[in-house]
Amino acid sequence: MPKVRIVFDRVRLEEKMLEEKAIELGHDTKxxxxxxxxxxTASKKTEFxxxxxxxxxxxxxxRGLHFTAxxxxxxxxxxxxxxxxNNCGNKMLTSLLLKKHNVPTPKTYISFSSEAAIETLEKxxxxxxxxxxxxxxxxxxxxxxxxDTADAIIEIRELNDGPLDRIYYxxxxxxxxxxxxxxxxxxxxxxxxxxxxxxxxxxTNIALGAExxxxxxxxxxxxxxxxxxxxxxxxxxxxxxxxxEKDGLVVHEIxxxxxxxxxxxxxxxxxxxxxxxxxxxxxxx
Length: 285
Prior knowledge:
Blueprint: E1 4-8, H1 13-24, E2 29-33, E3 53-56, H2 61-73, E4 78-79, H3 82-89, H4 91-100, E5 108-111, H5 114-124, E6 128-131, E7 142-144, H6 147-160, E8 168-172, E9 179-186, E10 189-197, E11 211-214, H7 219-232, E12 236-244, E13 248-255, H8 261-264, H9 271-283
Parallel strand pairs: 1-2, 1-3, 3-4
Antiparallel strand pairs: 5-8, 6-7, 6-8, 9-10, 9-12, 10-11, 12-13
């Protein structure tokens, strides 16, 4: 049986579920703490016990991305690949790839200075949604409803002056019900979907208290999500979809190390089992 390793930097319920399912399926399974693992440019695969396949599950995007690069340097199969993690972790890259592959997605405006961002807002009109290009759990995502709000948010960014604060990523506000859809794609299959309902505010993240409700996987939803997965390179992905009242389903984000504890409560299929089996299949091809 292939040996499965799960890389983490913080053990959440999802990592526990994956470990338990891998053991239940009969795999030699170990958890690997990214925070205490060290590599050098002279490292060899034989110096580590990374098994036959690694499932990278770091909460820290940058830690997980660079850990994945080290694993691929050692020719160790890892889910997801570095290219996929990079494409999904950066919202700007995700938007560009979705558009390039003709996947419906909100119109997105990208600029590289506060002055250019304000020009976009004044030309296109309020509201637009501002998002950090890297981040999760809805942090830093907010609607800019007028010039005063925009000036205040941009002033905070200029005070922080982090390297990513200088990249302004603005999206059209989608007219939708007070919910979105989280879909999990594993390889070439859509295995589960749920509605995430708003708790009264703008955001619908489960991490912020949104409630999971089962969602039927229609042919349209399946098609859009499989195309979105292919656009960023495939693997195990969480795809976030909104229901535009005019244009139908639009993909707005794709998650590389997707959280699924909320969806697991309402899914018909066993999510961690599907993930483990896909990782093992990937390793023995």
